Amino acid sequence: MTVLFESRYPTHPDDVKHYDTDELRQHFLVDNLMQPDQLVLCYTHYERVIVGSAVPVNAAVKLEAPEPLKAQFFLQRRELGIINVGGTGTVSVDGTDYQLQNTEALYVGMGAREVSFHSADATTPAKFYLNSAPAHHAFPTKHLTMDNCTVLQMGALETSNERAIHQLMINDVVQTCQLQMGLTVLKPGSVWNTMPAHQHDRRMEAYFYFNLADDQRVCHFMGQPQQTRHIWVANEQAVVSPAWSIHSGCGTSNYAFIWGMAGENLDYHDMDKFPASAMK
Q: Per the database entry, which stretches of residues form a coiled coil (predicted)?
């Protein structure tokens, strides 16, 4: 097993106005996730959130603390959110096993020393998507499923954005320090997510797109409302969104995505919305 670790530094919106396509992708797109038998970690300096993945195929993948973290173990001062988008797998946390089916999640609190990822079947391996944020309190580990989360039915087929928002890790479902995660599934015939677009100056967000055919793409919109930019995103890639940026997307087919947030406010509805008529 190897660990692929990189850092992404903050950007100023005035600078991003001048980015070309390659620069946008370099700073905001995470396109190396879900590699077999590897722990992939992208350390962002937006709320110091880590976006990552673990795909155990031939052996277990351990959650290790790379040297740049300057930590004795990964969760020494962090919390972790995990959502499985592959086959059945198990997450072992300090000797306790949690079996995660497809789309099930696990919150792991600060202080857990040994975390490892396992697949039930190497031919259909588990694919664990990870978000981690700094923590100040050790909350209990909790297994979360589609049956014990809050579900919001949003949008309509007429506006091409009929979707179900599964709030797996928000503060009325599980206690966290600042991390929130959930999973949104678009209905057949719908391609727009998060419309009207919004931003929240009090936290960052990352979108991970999946269940997208290899020959299909999502056009992810970002930037300030009056200075929008776009990034074409393939299956199992993520986009990091600064607090000053909107986040929305439109696909060439329906798809699903995981949203993860961290910042000072745990109120899910703390956002500033911008209708299409207000954007440029």
A: none
